[in-house]
């Protein structure tokens, strides 16, 4: 087999065999096939697509290109969740301990933020001492003993995906639905997931801007899960406006803590109940999603979910004083509100612009490896549908640099669209795919 023939086949809209994908992708991972040939192939895939069968084969080839975790000796069914990324999305911080407190142990390997979308590891690292580099042995021990783990990838899971994703990032070939679906699913399979809830974000602050694109990606991921013997559902979740109020690392940890104390923003609390209920249901702990919601509402109201979060933070070396008294978390020097310049109804709070403003303040990174400032960020006080009086606070900006604070104020005002007539609030979800 020759690499050029694989490229030509995809250029001419052919369908790859499993053997071709193994030869090409594993050859690339071993360094035997150069970047330029794989870049040409990725562009051919972006333009010509892949069949669901090819996408499943690509997923499995990438999943088994490295270490594959087996959690069967630790949990009866390993249930995972995956968000495709958004602004203010701190769902894992609440859902992992809440689902664990409801009786289903959850070990999750999360990622860092890039561009306008945040990452769970960056948020957790706002807690002094919190370790995100557990070894596989530590991960399994904590999953067995505490029941909740939120860490980074310690071993090289799906190394083929790591290498291919980095190449796609610089060759304009990220936005291919089969490549995104296989990339996400290969990491889930390698991390040992037997059932997965996908939180597919759709809107101006998401990878998938339209409902059609989100539905296509969700359907493909659920289909791959099924083809590979896993259970999965995908929620199509709004990401036109930020989720909850807090955007920025320590601010989001504070909001997650408030939510675990049953005092979170209504939309975020509701979002967590839905994602978590589907996890409990896929995990076989409850007979219906409604029963899952009720169970989660109970463990949150009773303080058990908070206790599980606290135990997880302690097990991972985090300073529990900083979560018991969240005012000890990193705090910015300048904290100022942005008042409404007019009255009216909020018609839009542009999630991507808010996310980009958080990056401008230092909460996120423009490129991989950039340092971040855990203290800075934005509190969003107005949501779509709200009636606002002139002078009412729209945002609170947390900054460590006065010049950036001024820029952020301008950018945030530009993120709001107004209406003189009443506006319907945005839905949290647009639909569910699978099961
Ligand atoms: N996230 C991933 O993990 N992979 C992609 O290709 C896109 C988003």
Index terms:
binds uracil, 435 residues, alpha/beta, Aldehyde Oxidoreductase, domain 3, 3 domains, Pyrimidine Nucleoside Phosphorylase, Chain A, domain 2, 17 helices, 13 strands, four-stranded antiparallel β-sheet, single chain, Transferase, Pyrimidine Nucleoside Phosphorylase, Chain A, domain 3
Provide a brief overview of the structure.
With 435 residues, the chain is an alpha/beta fold. Helices cover 45% and strands 15% of the residues.
Please identify, by name, the CATH architecture of the largest domain. 3-Layer(aba) Sandwich
* Low-pLDDT segments, ≥5 res: none
- The dominant shape is globular
* CATH class placement of the largest domain: Alpha Beta
Portion in beta strands:
5-15%
CA gyration radius, whole angstroms: 22 Å
Spatial order of strands in the largest sheet: 1-4-5-13
Order of helices and strands: HHHHEHEHHEHHEHEEHHHHHEEHEEEHEE
Explain the overall architecture.
Helix content is 45%, strand content 15%. The two termini are 40 Å apart. Helix 10 links the parallel strand 4 and strand 5. The protein has 3 domains: 47 residues, Up-down Bundle (Transferase, Pyrimidine Nucleoside Phosphorylase, Chain A, domain 3), CATH 1.20.970; 247 residues, Nucleoside phosphorylase/phosphoribosyltransferase catalytic domain (Pyrimidine Nucleoside Phosphorylase, Chain A, domain 2); 89 residues, Aldehyde Oxidoreductase, domain 3. It has a 4-stranded mixed β-sheet with strand order 1-4-5-13, with helices on both faces. A 4-stranded antiparallel β-sheet has the order 6-9-11-7, with helices on both faces. It has 435 residues and is an alpha/beta fold. The protein binds uracil (URA). Uracil binds next to helix 9.
